[in-house]
């Protein structure tokens, strides 16, 4: 059976009902559109702050409450909180903020945790993300609807908690489809394993906005789907994914791509066809964290590690990292990361909130 999904809303930002996607605003009208979204960010600040804080509270409560094990080394009998499995993390009700610890010891653990200011927008937890290019590795057809996108890719376990807020209402957006895709630990995208034969000896661009980039690898494998997937936001406006920490490739800072669809069709084979596209963006990670993960296997096997090395955020080609901050530099497109356990190789969880204008209907398919 083919199912269609759509979101119908009424909007209050006059003049922003129909736009086209751009890597960066250039005309006065485009810059004003971005500034209107920026003003909405400050208007929405308390709502976004509480939204993110509630998600973090729910996470802490579930981990410290001792969910069933997925690693024997963290058995509650050994005095350690357990790590939840993928199914447990995403089960209905797991992240309800009303959940409470069941014992005095668990309450004491929670009491020792950091209490964040829940009425202010934290600079590193929420953005009203500017629209930036989708890049050449998006597959318009065949993205599966699933939360665990890792497949059999090896890498550092990473949970992503992505909240979506409507800038017109400052409220979470339920029932929108968040579609993400990323490179694997050694910097490759599913379906694009090798450069074109005539470009196998190509060297990176020198100078200009494309500095450091190679030509995009063509799609030659039409079966691979790893590290690609989409999931509908729940009633709280949250989509959660299980993945691995992404690797890097020539010219680009480490990043995760995202789209938000307010209308789509679910296909019988578990994939979807996107219709109304409200947002296209990219998320990043702190350079200090990237450098630590570079020391871990299999990230040390990146083929350009000893040739060119990684590209830092501030040197990201095409100015994508900078563009993702908006024309006045007030946005922060960086995940706020937390350790799942006591050390980094036990995994990470990342939080980010993006504000979208659900009235948008973008045409941002890669044109080559």
TrEMBL record:
InterPro entries linked to this entry: Intradiol_dOase_core
Segment forming the signal sequence: 1-21
Keyword terms: Signal
Origin: domain of life: Eukaryota
A single GO molecular function term of this UniProt record: oxidoreductase activity, acting on single donors with incorporation of molecular oxygen, incorporation of two atoms of oxygen
Name assigned to this protein: Intradiol ring-cleavage dioxygenases domain-containing protein
Organism of provenance: Collybiopsis luxurians FD-317 M1
């Amino acid at each position: 059976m083919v199912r269609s999904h759509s979101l119908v809303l009424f909007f209050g930002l006059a003049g922003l009902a129909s736009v086209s996607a751009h890597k960066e605003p250039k005309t006065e009208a485009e810059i004003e559109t971005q500034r209107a979204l920026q003003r909405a960010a400050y208007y929405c600040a308390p709502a976004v702050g509480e939204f993110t804080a509630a998600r973090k509270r729910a996470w802490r409560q579930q981990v410290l409450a001792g969910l069933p094990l997925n690693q024997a080394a963290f058995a509650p009998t050994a005095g350690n909180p357990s790590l939840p499995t993928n199914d447990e993390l995403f089960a209905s009700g797991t992240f309800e903020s009303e959940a409470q610890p069941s014992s005095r010891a668990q309450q004491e653990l929670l009491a020792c945790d950091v209490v964040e200011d829940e009425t202010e927008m934290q600079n590193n937890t929420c953005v009203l993300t500017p629209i930036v290019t989708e890049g050449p590795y998006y597959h318009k057809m065949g993205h599966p609807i699933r939360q665990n996108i890792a497949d059999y890719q090896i890498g550092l376990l990473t949970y992503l908690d992505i909240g979506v807020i409507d800038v017109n209402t400052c409220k979470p957006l339920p029932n929108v489809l968040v579609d993400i895709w990323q490179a694997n630990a050694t910097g490759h995208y599913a379906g694009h394993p090798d450069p074109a034969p005539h470009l196998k000896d190509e060297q990176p661009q020198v100078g200009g906005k494309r500095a450091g980039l190679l030509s995009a690898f063509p799609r030659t494998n039409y079966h691979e789907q790893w590290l690609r997937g989409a999931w509908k936001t729940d009633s709280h406006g949250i989509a959660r994914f299980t993945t691995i920490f992404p690797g890097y490739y020539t010219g680009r800072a480490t990043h995760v791509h995202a789209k938000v669809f307010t209308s789509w069709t679910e296909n019988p084979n578990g994939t979807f066809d996107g219709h109304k596209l409200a947002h296209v963006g990219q998320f990043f990670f702190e350079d200090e964290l990237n450098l630590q993960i570079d020391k871990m296997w299999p990230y040390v096997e990146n083929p350009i590690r000893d040739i060119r090395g990684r590209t830092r955020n501030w040197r990201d080609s095409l100015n994508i990292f900078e563009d993702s901050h908006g024309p006045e530099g007030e946005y922060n497109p960086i995940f706020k990361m937390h350790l799942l356990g006591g050390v980094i190789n036990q995994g990470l969880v990342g939080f980010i909130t993006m504000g979208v204008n659900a009235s948008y209907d973008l045409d941002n398919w890669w044109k080559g």
